[in-house]
Write a structure and sequence with these properties.
With 167 residues, the protein is α/β, with parallel strands linked by helices. It is built from five helices and eight strands. The protein is globular, with a radius of gyration of 15 Å.
């Protein structure tokens, strides 16, 4: 069986992307993870995996972890009537991830390239991003520009969006 963590690290290293790693106890929410990386510089992100009502189209959105997503607004942006959070079963089927481990590294398992990737412009100015590397016992810090380099290498177009980010 493939090691999803090793795949994530290999992707960074194969692309010359420098990163810093913080190992910690399992974190199932961004709030939990934030406690373990307190004091470190980097935008705390949350990655959301969504689908349309009929589970035909899939969306990954990266945004600031302290912002709330207006699902109706995102549905409009994605040109859908409605979107919803993907079930744990769909998450595992499409990305090979469990809840609490969703990050752009899950796209390594999207062999059909079905997921559309969205990034909130509100955090574009942040120099460093944080993500779990397909496991929730470690947080990686690396440059925002390297995230986009990584996604391009993987064959993904980034859709930059302006969300209202209501608290």
């Amino acid at each position: 069986m493939r090691n999803k963590y090793e795949d994530a690290i290999k992707l960074l290293e194969d692309n010359g992307i420098r990163y810093e790693s913080v190992k910690h106890p399992p974190a199932f929410t961004t709030e939990e993870a934030d406690k373990y990386i307190e004091g470190k510089i980097g935008c705390r992100t949350k990655t959301m995996f969504m689908t349309d009502q009929k589970k035909r189209r899939f969306y990954m959105l990266v945004m600031d972890d302290k912002d709330r997503l207006d699902m109706k607004e995102f549905a409009e942006i994605a040109n859908e009537k409605r979107v919803k959070m993907a079930s744990e079963e769909t998450l595992y089927e499409k990305l090979g991830n469990e809840a609490g481990c969703v990050s752009p590294f899950g796209l390594l398992n999207d062999t059909e390239k079905e997921v559309q990737f969205y990034f909130d412009n509100a955090i574009l100015k942040e120099e460093i991003m944080t993500f779990h590397p397909n496991i929730n016992t470690e947080t990686l810090f690396f440059k925002t520009e390297d995230l986009f380099k990584m996604l391009e290498t993987m064959g993904y177009e980034v859709h930059f969006v302006d969300l209202n980010n209501e608290e």
